Amino acid sequence: MRTTFFIFLACLSSLAIYAQEASNDLKLSIEQSNKIQQINKEAYPKFEEIGRNISLSGYEVNRQRKLLLLEQKKSIMSILTPEQRKIWDAKFNNIPPEVNIRESLKQEYDGRIKEWDRQYASGKKAIENDKSLDKKARKEQLKELSNTYKAEKERLKRERDAVRDSFFY
């Protein structure tokens, strides 16, 4: 985790410079900028929802997220002028891999949250099926498990959101 955080910090400065250069090069109008921000704001909750869906395999999560990103890119491209599209392609089709660290870190946290969800479901089922416990003991254990689950899940979400918010979108 510490290594990931240090990589994140190292890439943050290069990402900020890269994003600013691309924005300056595109010379977006205020209207274009607002539309792109709106597209990004609308896409993010969908992106998060895909990641939270524990019924999807890792492959399916990635596939659906890629489709969403392609849809998002198509929407953005429809806003740009032909000259801006050329600049976009020149800048964003050659992004160095380390710039995508935000997504890698976010996916790592999403995976940890999914795993925590699975562990909670497994633990809950084990307590519910434990016939050696009386009703009161079962209820206490379920409550303790639930409190631990909620606290850890919130911690993971806060860390993931800190990673997400630390990068330009």
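(ticket continues) Second input and output from the same batch:
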Amino acid sequence: MSWGPALDARHAEHDGGMGGSHAHRSRLAAVLADVPPGLYDEEAIFWAGALGVPPTMDPADPNYASFGEVLPGLQFYVQRVDAAPRIHLDIETDDVDAEVSRLEALGAVRVRQVETWWVLRDPAGMLFCVVAIQCPEAFAQGATRWE
């Protein structure tokens, strides 16, 4: 299956997903294992053993166990959530509103805004987040520019 023409057509149909907004950049930044509170400690211990990396815990925000970059430029976290276990992705950007608009034009749907970021659903219904820049060095090296 060739994705080229289908993506090119979708891109042209939606003006690159920008809707007339100014240029911005974005990239896939993180993978998060979301787990309910009762499984959080067990999940963090599991991934510490699986990855061979002890998590960094932020006392100011105990809902995240950070495992750092598991691949160059890609962060991994275990996140405590009030929902069933799932995996979600974070896209970081230098313009959250423009990136959300671009992704909506490609078929994403807004779910809710949380502080400075947005939770969205992709066309298959999977959750992901659009966040401000989290890793400036990796962002500078790997972000895609959208016109």
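Agent notes: The beta strands are 24-35, 56-58, 61-71, 74-80, 86-93, 109-114, 117-121, 127-132, 144-146. Residues 4-39+81-146 form a domain with the 2,3-Dihydroxybiphenyl 1,2-Dioxygenase; domain 1 fold (CATH 3.10.180.10). Closing as not reproducible unless the customer responds.
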